[in-house]
Amino acid sequence: AAERRVLLLGEGNFSFAASLCGAAGTHVVATCYESEEEVRGRGRAAESIRRLRETGAEVVFSVDCTKLKDYFLPEKREFDCIYFNFPHCGRKAGVVKNRELLARFFHSSAEVLTEEGEIHVALCNGQGGTPADQPRREWHNSWQIVAVAAGAGFILSNIHPFKAETIHGYKSTGYRSQDKSFCVEGALNHVFTRSTPLPHFKPMICEIELKSQKVSFQVPRVLVDKINRGFLELSSNHPVRTVKEKLTEELSQTFPLQNIDSCLSPLHQGHLNDICHSNIFWIILSPEETPSTEEMSNGLPNAVLFSHVDFCKDTDTNGWVNVQEGCNIPKQYYLRPSLLPYAQAIIQRGAFPPGTLHVLSGPVFRKCLISPYSMPVFHEMVFVCAVNRGTENSCIQLLENNIKSSIDSLHQTVSNFKLNINLQEAVSFETAELNDFAAFESQLSKIKYFICTERDTSGSCEKHSCVGIIRTAHYELVSCELVVVFASLNLDLLAMLICGISDWRMLWTSDTRFLSQFPRGELRLFKSFSLYPPSYVHDVSFWVPDGEQFDEVALHTIARQVSGETVVSIQLIDSFQQPETGRKSLCYRLTFQSCDKALSRQEVAEMQLLFREEINQRLRVTPR
């Protein structure tokens, strides 16, 4: 195996470096900022330097940690680990100067660190500014190490106490640039790794087969990184698929099961009941031909080549359309917001034996407000079962008990403690005979039961995450009358719940450190590789167009798109109406934070500027 190269910076008396030398498979390069003459006068420094050289370590003096590549030949620049213990500008330098030192150090380290290397920075208690510091300083009075590191593309992946007493021969020195030790009680070692870069998505065309014809369409920009990810494919180790497979396996012990996933199109066409049009990703497919004079006059000069997406000359930048009354556009489709509409096709098949549980699963899409548990795309799992009239309640109870016990069993296996799952009746169901799909879908919108997992003991519904619902509908078939029972589960939320994943965005990360925690499809407790990510707050205020209903969902969707899902909160903090003109002004507060990538202050500032431009152009608001 290749030797592990370790670089130590800012050594005061080389006692820390001496404690590492001689380790098998490790080559140590120990450096300090001062000259050899200055260092040798410090207590025990000469002895440590001699020991280092005797064991084959390199000792280099007068090294500036902000210009590391200048001190090593190109073939010697790649280090697997860089240590910088208790960095300081010297004497009574304040927090701002020390932040600047760290910023330049991280940028310099990026040039000499291997792709999977680590940077270890030890700081005195309180300096880092993370919740691990006890007591914790106010953010403005700390070194803000996670934010500073993010500027160079690094994330905090681990943090643990710096236990000086366990390091043989170690003695701190350099207090206010003197040969004096300083207090290291409560000190913390911060371990940083490289982040995957923030994505810059290009427009994406998706090709599918629709009604025996190959078509293509432009993917909404907010969904570009979420289309065709293959989480549910046979080769996938993703926890979403594992949850699906284990639930299916458990339910197959009670019900005959039939999987019908392969033939479901991502596009749907038809009447929508009880679904707000502003929450739908609309897709317009145009024929592959030159538009007619009539189409040109209707505002469709570019509606050609299946990939084009338009709608009455009012298409927003994200690839979906704004619905306007009176538009008469052919071939109007939308990305499926649920798999439940596909239930009709299943029911109308010739053979639909009572008692068989038909299983559908796949991603579904919807525009929604930004919140911890609201996702523009998630994987839905739908169970459909027909039973004889009068036996539906026992079927619901059986299905309910099996789903509850299966979820609880999975959670207990992973976490070793029992999960509190409530299955509560939400509304009573209205009996009806349904002979058309519009009425059928309307009845399906009435929730019978929902599975609610308590996240704390407050009892507040806002503290609960709804992972599924159970519904029933009476449907008169050709030869007999059956009652159809449906169960719909959000597999993404279930995977989060079972594996302890606190942020839904982590399910979609491209960082390999996520899936590597679930080898061979095992379900395990997830350990975050990005700790205490920095957050940034920006306000935006604007005048809304006179006489128009402001579309807050569109505002949130644009924020998702321009930030690459790094906006975690949007709050209306002020609303003002000018008495003289009646003009209305709104002020929103945006909080930016990434769960898996380095996010710098500069990058957020650029996102905020782009956000202002986009809402001005797409929502016709006037920024103040």
Automatic annotation (TrEMBL):
Major localization listed first in the record, in broad terms: mitochondrion
Subcellular location per the Swiss-Prot or TrEMBL entry: Mitochondrion matrix
Enzyme Commission number(s) of this protein: 6.1.1.20
SMART domains noted in UniProt: FDX-ACB
Family assignment from sequence similarity: Belongs to the class-II aminoacyl-tRNA synthetase family.
PANTHER family: FERREDOXIN-FOLD ANTICODON-BINDING DOMAIN-CONTAINING PROTEIN 1 (PTHR11538:SF26), PHENYLALANYL-TRNA SYNTHETASE (PTHR11538)
Domain FDX-ACB: residue ranges: 531-624
Designated gene of the protein: Fdxacb1
Name assigned to this protein: phenylalanine--tRNA ligase
